[in-house]
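Section 3.1 - Work completed
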Amino acid sequence: MRAPGVVHHGTRRRRAAYRRALWSGAEVLVTVGVVLLLLVAHQLWWTNRQARHGAERKVQALEREWGRSGTPATGSAGSAGSGGGAGSGVGATAGGGGHGTAGRSDSSGNGNGNGSGGGGGSGRTRPRWSQAYAVLSIPRLSLRVPVAEGVSKADVLNKGYVGHYKGTQQPGQAGNFALAGHRNTHGEPFRYLPRLRRGDTITVETKEAVYTYTVDRTLPQTSSRDVGVIRPVPRSTVRPSYGYSRPGYYITLTTCTPEYTSRYRMAVWGTLTSMRPR
């Protein structure tokens, strides 16, 4: 018969092994937690910092290339060709592909966008794939960001740029100049897109001219595959009451919604109200 209070060596070893297992498990959980926090910090802070700095440098480089610097003039010398085109409904959407893109997502490496690289149907050379060739400015959002050809994540959007949809028109041309940008991470240029209101201005600068669009419609949410929002006469195929009914000179800004998801798209539409040559 075992005396009270006496613990066998086997029991001690089992208890020691149990404590070691608990300690090891706790260490693993702490390590995993730290790694996850670092990943979140990288996505939400470092990618934003890196992309914003890169985008700012690209804007400065374009300004030097164009032989000027500073903020854009938004002069009204020269009105849009046909008054921007009226329509029915109250908004636009972004549909499709990857984060921040509408209807379809272009892969890197092939093709060029339609229209001229300098806008206004001037017949100039089309921008190369992933080339930054314009600057988008939105005063209400304190935003000034490069516009590049295509909506590839790796080559355009993840650099903090705004991407131009292949197949849509260039700035100042009749039709739809359609753009996509990240809502969260990688510079998140379109994070505050929902703050835009009717009457806000959007300026697009190219080497040849400065184009000013005026916001007049917003589609808060639609399917990620709603390609109608980037057509020449933009109108949602999912929510047909949102959009336009006749040709004009349009701009479409698309991004993901709600924040930190890519399930749906939203878009802001505007019409061209002025343009001036450089």
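Second construct:
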Amino acid sequence: MSTAVDLHKVAPKHYDAVLLASFGGPEGQDDVLPFLRNVTRGRGIPDERLEEVSHHYRANGGISPINAQNRALKAALEAELAARNINLPVLWGNRNWDPYIPQTLQDAYDDGHRQILMVTTSAYTCYSSDRQYREDIGMALTSLGLDGKLAVDKVRQYFDHPGFVEPFIEGTAASLAKVRADLAAAGTPDAPVHVLFSTHSIPTRDAQAAGRSVDEPRSFEQGSAYVAQHLAVARRVMASIAADTAGPAPDWSLVYQSRSGAPHVPWLEPDINDAIADLAGKGVKGVVVVPLGFVSDHMEVVWDLDTEAKETCAGLGLAFDRAPTPGTSPLFVAGLVDLICERTIENHINDRPAMTDLGPWYDVAPAGCSQNFRGEKPAIAEHGSTIGLVAGPVVDKSVPAEAGR
């Protein structure tokens, strides 16, 4: 009789390197169009259209902040690992810009690495923040001829890990205090304030596929793990603030930003700017924006929030402050190293801390989770010490299909 696989916790392994994997971004005006071609590869979008949507990069000198932030995060991870006497080099690879994931993997293999543990700069569950990274690795290993030669596993999605959530609690409380101080200075100390937790909008179909599992059927708020995870973390943040603050806690809501794609395709709503206008119409005088869906100050944060949302608030006469992302917060960096230690034999951490009832999330992605509607691609499949490369739904062929992931 076959035994079901425990997707929540897998046996620790020996790893010889850590891969920090991220989205990547242009680092100069000449990089913008090539970068956008990479992001939209296979969709047949002409350069004229790409140039139309490049304005936020152009306005910042063609430079996305994400690469510099990842260099800083890589250095912080290296320092934290060294402080704990953990001998794991940190590699870095991007999906859409140099250093590219395939070259990073080839260099790793050439340098003698054989077992790599991947940490991504995406905390939540959906196609682009989880499965696509596993596809990137699967396609790279296949194209490089490294199937069965180089193993790559991935840490769990960490949306409710204390290292990710606690910096948001601190930052939201500080931003809330600033907005209230600004209102007091303007002579309206009791004016209503609203907290907007913002994350990247995704197609509704992708949202509904997030968290879907044939291994462990679960129901999620609003029919989506992606939405439910954000709502659960936002509630945890606000509960902590309410416990530490005198007086009633402000109202809050989850909003979305950075929508792209065809207008007829439904995406998650409401848009943050529409929500701000609605709040102003209801008498709200101050807004705290929390970039809950982001690890660091990506272009979507510095443009969509620090520029567009801030301008919307200014035009409506609303006090505004934006809470920081975790970035290289010592809490966040230590949390990422804890996630690494969950999966390693050396310096092993057996517990899986989680600050919401939805977690801890799976060490292993369940079969059917975050389906790719754009076409099947090879993806890494993890189970204990084995790695499989499969096309379509991620299923480990060493276990029964109903126990795959």
